[in-house]
TrEMBL record:
<dbReference type="Pfam" id="PF03358">
    <property type="entry name" value="FMN_red"/>
</dbReference>
<dbReference type="InterPro" id="IPR005025">
    <property type="entry name" value="FMN_Rdtase-like_dom"/>
</dbReference>
<dbReference type="GO" id="GO:0016491">
    <property type="term" value="F:oxidoreductase activity"/>
</dbReference>
<dbReference type="InterPro" id="IPR051814">
    <property type="entry name" value="NAD(P)H-dep_FMN_reductase"/>
</dbReference>
<dbReference type="InterPro" id="IPR029039">
    <property type="entry name" value="Flavoprotein-like_sf"/>
</dbReference>
<keyword id="KW-0560">Oxidoreductase</keyword>
<feature type="domain" description="NADPH-dependent FMN reductase-like">
    <location>
        <begin position="1"/>
        <end position="144"/>
    </location>
</feature>
<protein>
    <submittedName>
        <fullName>FMN reductase</fullName>
    </submittedName>
</protein>
<keyword id="KW-0285">Flavoprotein</keyword>
<keyword id="KW-0288">FMN</keyword>
Length: 188
């Protein structure tokens, strides 16, 4: 099983802090799972210009091909101006419209205030549905008050991150079993 974690911003620390915790939980609970962290702040990505993802070069090619090879993706995103950051939107634009077909996608969202919790429902989930993702219905939403000095200090957030990792693995395994069962129906 291949899981890709995306820290979807090039600024700030809360989203990366949350995604590092997700990575730690995967390593502790599911060491057999191949987990790759893509912190978008560490890559030099070009803006989408309409080419197929495999036609790009360098970091852009690596990031898109890594996402396309995954069985599951955990997207970490901050909320900027009530929306997802442009760096994350660019990732969606670089990928084909069916990029998440057959993939399970989970979400971790950070925001300055609880007033932005609907961003996931009104913006991110519709994009993921359009790209054919099997989304884990629950997501983790963390506010500024849940962090202190690059640490998560809210036990409820830690519990929910742990549960999100469990749910992600369960959904990937379940969808793999469903796909295998459907494949057996065909005689080729």
């Amino acid at each position: 099983m291949k899981i890709v974690l995306i820290a979807g911003s090039i600024v700030g620390t809360k989203t990366k802090t949350a995604m590092l915790k997700v990575q730690e939980i995967f390593a502790t609970k599911f060491p057999e799972v191949e987990v790759t962290m893509l912190d978008l702040a560490e890559y030099d990505l070009v803006f989408s210009d309409g080419r197929n993802y495999f036609e790009y070069e360098g970091d852009t090619k690596y990031v898109t091909e890594t996402i396309m090879a995954a069985d599951g993706v955990v997207i970490g995103t901050p909320t900027f101006q009530g929306s997802i950051p442009a760096t994350l939107k660019n990732i969606f634009d670089l990928l084909p419209v069916n990029a998440f077909r057959g993939k399970v996608v989970s979400t971790v969202v950070t925001a300055g205030t609880s007033k932005h919790y609907l961003m996931v429902e009104q913006q991110l989930k519709p994009i993921l549905a359009y790209m054919k993702a099997h989304t884990v219905p629950t997501y983790v939403f963390a506010e500024d008050k849940d962090f202190l000095r690059k640490e998560i200090i809210n036990d409820d957030i830690l519990f929910r991150l742990d549960r999100l990792v469990d749910d992600t693995v369960t959904y990937v395994e379940t969808h793999a079993a469903i796909r295998e069962k459907k494949d057996k129906l065909y005689d080729f």
